[in-house]
Every structure is written in C-alpha cells, then in structure tokens.
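During the no-cost extension, the postdoctoral fellow (Dr. R.K.) reprocessed legacy sequence entries with the updated structure-token encoder. One reprocessed record is reproduced below for audit purposes.
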Amino acid sequence: MLLKTPPVTSADIAAAAERIAPYAIRTPLLSSPVLDAVTGTRVFLKPETLQRTGSFKFRGAFNKLASIPQNARAAGVVAFSSGNHAQGVAAAAQLLKMPATIVMPSDAPLLKRQRTADFGAQVVLYDRDREDREAIARELCDKRGAALVPPYDDPFVIAGQGTAGREIADDLAALGVAPDFVAAPASGGGLVAGIATAIKTRFPQASIVASEPEEYDDHTRSLASGQRQAHHAKSRTICDALMAAMPGEITFSINQPLGVTGAPVSDAQVLAAMKFAFLELKLVVEPGGATALAALLSGRIDAKGKTAVIVLSGGNVDPELFAEAIR
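Re-encoded structure tokens follow.
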C-alpha cells in the first residue's frame, strides 16, 4: 500500500531554505542558565524576534512570493493578516519589486499597521467582527489579477516556515543534542506544521507542541479530537497574532498525523513570560510570540528533566502593552 505524500515534505523545506537564504536571517539557537534553573529543563530558544520584519512570517511570505512566475508578478499580491504576515508579505514584495495590498483588521496594533505601510504596501482595513477578511482579499485578487498569499494554509508558506525547524535541527545535531520536544505558537498552524515536518524528519522521537491562548484553543480541541474544531472564545486576547478561528485544513492534515499536541495558556501567563524574556533573557517578545515560553514557565508542558526547544515567534509589540507587561 502506497502512503499518501504529505502536502509539505523535508525536500520542500530544503528548497525553501535555499530560496530564502540570501534574504532571511538565520536566527541563532540560544540557551539561558537562568531559564534552565527555573524550569528544571535544558532549554534552547529560537528567537524569531530577530528575524527580518521581527517575526518568522518573512520566511513563508518570501518563499511564496518567490514561487510566483516572473510574468505574473506585475499584478502583485494580496494578503490578509493582523500584522506579522502583513509585514512579511510587504517586505518580500518590496524586495521582489511586486505591488502588495494587505487586508488588516482595524484593531490591529498601530505599530504593525504602520510598519506594513512603511514597506510600501497598500493597507485596507476591515471590521474583524462584521466583515470577512478573506472575502475582501479574494475580491481584490479577482479585480486585479493578483495572487493571494494566505497566512498559513499554503504549501509554499508552510515550507518557508519550516526553514526555522530545519535550522533548529541542524544546530541541535551540531551540538550532538536530541530534543524531547519543540514548542511553537499556533494561530492557523503554519509555523507548527513546518517545524513539525522538519524536526520529525531528523528527530522522529521528539514531541511537537502547539501553544495558544486558552480561550482560542482550537488546536488543543482539534488535535485531541482528531477533527478540526473552532474555538469558543467570547472575548479578545492580548495575543492578537493568534486569533484564527480554527486550524488550517492543510496545516491540520500535517500536524494531526505527526502527533502534535496543544498547550493553552492564559493572558496573565503570557504577560509573565514577556516580562521574564525581557528581564532575564534581554529579549523583546510580543504576546503571541511568547505563548510557548509561557507554556513552559507555567508548567502547561511537562518539561522537568527534559531537553526542550522554545520558539519565540515574534517581537512586534506595541510599546504601551510591552510597558504594561514588564511593569
């Protein structure tokens, strides 16, 4: 019996790594004696806060845009995002000299909206509660003949995000270390899917954890039940980057067979993780980017005596919110 080929393979991630290498930053793998002592765990940190545009999103965005044929690039691209994917797409489009339009919620952090516009993209605002961002984006694509760049449910985007996992695997192998688990923040699941594919190829025994806000626990629900489920959040979360309604269809088809599990955390735990990252690690991490660290520090992940990799996925945080977190 032939096994079905997964939508994204390690070969796809290798190709993405070669494609983005001249443009993306190869972020380091860091360790902290203080963090190890506090958690009773040997911890390695992957600070995608240091990535171009301040988050991992540049990886997938550039890989996707670079895959568009030259004769189709003049029509540009359209994306929808609360901020980090927006900046990643805008920056990639600027580098590739392509027009970009980004559909963003009107309540997205001002910093993310401004940075997106600074990269030369047109920003189209919408009401998160009353309008469908994907429908708006698709209508723009139809009018302009532009290419849609989804934030997570796309093989090229997932493969690009998987380059972070490939770097983690390469760096651990060079140290002669095998991880017990790798934890990363999840919204639609593209980062987790890419990392899971890369890590499981090299370290099949490693567990993969998707961290998310506790009310926006669609990955935890879905991965436990074996079927995609929406969250039942009744209020906002400070993790503005992690508010997708449910796991992506493609991302879930990757994460479920690879045994990914969910780890929900509260906003208070996220704020505590942001404060710890600043005071002890000297890193600025946005709320959504700190959920994996929050899951480790709060004990949501059973980590004592183990070797862990924690992905800090982004650092684009409004100064006022950051000041509140570290106060």
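The first strand starts at residue 30 and ends at 31. The mean pLDDT is 95. The remaining legacy entries will be reprocessed before the final report is submitted.
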